[in-house]
């Protein structure tokens, strides 16, 4: 692999990058932008993406980028990773990822996340090698880039750049989820400052394969309305953390949801709790033991939910 050069993206790399994604993912990659060299170049020109490529004999053989909600923000996601099938297994993805991680200080970044596919273990091992810590599970989250029948379940990973912090709020976590939250609190630290009252407006939108819900809190009335949503819908909730989280947690559990961990909040240094209802019935073998446990809990809850709904319909 000595002939492979890892370097920053150049405007002339757009066509080669688009061709790379077609070789790796066919027509199934979740972001349509990668199929338009114009958009690849524009994202880099406007600093929406900070991209590095692996080049062999002037041919783009690998790609990875850091991208964030805001070009001037302190949070970014390591994403858009692709390596030519003929060159996989040569640590190119690791070299690309490490090159980007080494640039975080210069880019003014403080916090990083990664979304790992679960149809195979490669991206999960890559995240671990690059220092990410698994924090949560997003069941049936996106259409699979590998054209499988099922939507792709995602493992969320997080890390902080040296010199920065992303502490969890100091909460009384429900006993049923402390096996996950206590180690994460030890890892990322906690803040004794009370979480600010959420001004996050309630959002609900339909995405491929699921209904996506974002909320600052869950009141009794809202929990009852969520319970009455169609039983066959796949529902994903990202919930703000507050001192009354244990109440929110129980209301969602009573509405048929299961806790699936936490993830970095978009656009701020905080965290959100994850819940899901109506996950697909399918086995997964995950690289991380805590994520495997979450998946098994999701599957068990799914069986209970479906059985309860079948019984009520009889």
Task: Give a short overview.
With about 325 residues, this protein is of the alpha+beta class. The chain contains 9 helices and 14 strands.
Explain the layout of strands and helices.
Layout: E1 5-8, H1 14-25, H2 37-45, E2 49-56, E3 59-67, E4 75-83, H3 92-102, H4 104-107, E5 111-117, H5 122-129, E6 133-142, E7 152-160, E8 168-169, H6 178-188, E9 190-191, E10 203-207, E11 210-215, H7 220-227, E12 235-240, H8 245-254, E13 258-264, E14 271-277, H9 289-313
Parallel strand pairs: 4-5, 8-9, 11-12
Antiparallel strand pairs: 1-2, 2-3, 3-4, 5-7, 6-7, 10-11, 12-14, 13-14
Describe it.
The protein is of the alpha+beta class and 314 residues long. It has helices at residues 14-25, 37-45, 92-102, 104-107, 122-129, 178-188, 220-227, 245-254, 289-313, and strands spanning 5-8, 49-56, 59-67, 75-83, 111-117, 133-142, 152-160, 168-169, 190-191, 203-207, 210-215, 235-240, 258-264, 271-277. Helix content is 31%, strand content 29%. Helix 1 packs across helix 2 (37-45). The protein is globular and about 65 Å long. The model has no long low-confidence stretch (mean pLDDT 92).
């Amino acid at each position: 692999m000595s002939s492979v050069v890892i370097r920053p993206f150049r405007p002339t790399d757009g066509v080669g990058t688009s061709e790379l994604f077609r070789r790796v993912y066919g027509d199934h990659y979740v972001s349509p932008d990668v199929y338009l060299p114009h958009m690849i170049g524009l994202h880099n020109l406007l600093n929406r993406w900070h991209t590095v490529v692996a080049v062999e004999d002037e041919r783009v053989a690998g790609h990875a980028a850091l991208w964030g909600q805001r070009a001037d923000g302190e949070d970014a996601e390591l994403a858009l990773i692709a390596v030519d099938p003929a060159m996989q297994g040569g640590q190119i993805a690791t070299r690309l990822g490490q090159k980007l991680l080494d640039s975080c200080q210069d880019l003014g970044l403080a916090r990083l996340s990664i979304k790992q596919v679960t149809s195979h273990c490669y991206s999960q091992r890559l995240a671990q090698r690059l220092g990410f810590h698994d924090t949560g599970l997003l069941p049936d989250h996106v259409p699979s880039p590998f054209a499988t029948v099922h939507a792709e379940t995602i493992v969320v990973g997080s890390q902080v750049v040296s010199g920065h912090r992303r502490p969890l709020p100091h909460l009384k976590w429900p006993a049923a989820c402390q096996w996950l939250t206590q180690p994460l609190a030890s890892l990322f630290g906690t803040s004794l400052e009370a979480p600010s009252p959420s001004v996050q407006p309630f959002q609900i939108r339909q995405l491929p394969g699921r209904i996506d819900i974002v909320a600052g809190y869950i009141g009794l009335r809202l929990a009852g309305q969520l319970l009455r949503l169609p039983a066959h819908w796949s529902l994903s909730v990202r919930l703000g953390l507050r001192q009354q989280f244990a109440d929110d947690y129980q209301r969602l559990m009573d509405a048929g949801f299961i806790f699936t961990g936490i993830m970095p909040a978009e656009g701020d240094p905080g965290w959100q709790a994850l819940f899901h209802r109506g996950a697909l019935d399918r086995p997964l073998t995950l690289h991380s033991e805590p994520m495997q446990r979450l998946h098994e809990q999701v599957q068990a809850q799914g069986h209970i939910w479906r059985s309860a709904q079948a019984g009520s319909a009889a």
